[in-house]
Amino acid sequence: MKKKLLKTLALTISLSSFGTISPSTSYRANAAEDYWKLINNSWYYMDSTGKVQTGWISYNDNWYYIDSNGVMKTGWVYDNGNWYYLYSDGSMAINTTINGYYLGSTGAWTINTTSSSSGNALKPQDIDGSHHLRGDIASSDRDNNAASQLTNYNLTLSDTGLRRLKVLSINLAQGRTTIDEARNNCIGKVVDGYKITDIKFFDQSFSTTTGNDADSKVKAIQNSNLVTYKSSSSYKYDAFLVFSCGNARGNEWEAMRVVVELEAV
């Protein structure tokens, strides 16, 4: 954060003049008494009474985003249907290209509505990681049967779109790509008219005493922490993968869950 942000800020919020930004909360500052405060390496914006503020804040022709916990955000931020990029000092990027995505005068990156648009479609290089596959796991027919019973999605997908989401899930499960890499490469990309907004990954091992047939594995997974996460996304590809074969896997098996969250564009 620049030194000027250590001082009392004179700021004016005028959301109506900022195009597509429409935060759920807004705050008109008292120019003489409001201030930024650094707490545990995070920046907070306080009003004159010391109350933490949230939402979009304008300062010296720059915009800053304060999340629901009062923390100033950096990096990519998704708000009200649009993606924005905030530099390391918290200021929002405008009229520039970040990681191949052009951000206009409002700061928002808005994608085209077709999955084939250049630069927007989910491509094989987005999902094909560079790490070695895990050698200690493999799937049997029983494993694949259990996984297919649990996997579900509510999208209308082409064969290519479905295959790419499957490969993404397999690469995450087998360690060819990491969840951070998958998020960096895939969030914002389009699959058959749906934009990826987030990717979740969960992993859990089970003792063979839970059972070795497909139905027993389904029951064990349904009673485990793997199903705790409930996606609130309108559209999702929710994949389960089961592995019980491989090196030193005689007394346990492993299940993983990949949730790709999307929205229609």
Brief write-up:
The chain has 5 helices and 13 strands. The chain is α+β, with helices and mostly antiparallel strands and 265 residues long.
What can you see in these coordinates?
This protein is α+β, with helices and mostly antiparallel strands. Helix content is 17%, strand content 29%. The protein is built from five helices and 13 strands. A five-stranded antiparallel sheet has the order 9-12-13-11-10. Strands 1-2 form a two-stranded antiparallel sheet. α2 crosses α5 (214-222). It is elongated, with a radius of gyration of 22 Å. The two termini are 35 Å apart.
How are the strands of the biggest sheet laid out side by side? 9-12-13-11-10
Uncertain segments of ≥5 residues (pLDDT<50)?
1-31, 112-118
Number of helices: 5
> What structural class do you assign from the helix and strand content?
alpha+beta
Integer average pLDDT: 81
Give the strand tally: 13
* Biggest sheet details: 5 strands, antiparallel
Give helix and strand order, one letter per element, not per position: EEEEEEEEHHEHHEEHEE
The N- and C-terminal alpha carbons lie at a distance of: 35 Å
Percentage of residues assigned to helices: 10-25%
Bulk shape: elongated
Taking Cα atoms only, what radius of gyration do you get, to the nearest Å?
Answer: 22 Å
- Tell me the fraction of residues in β-strands, as a range: 25-35%
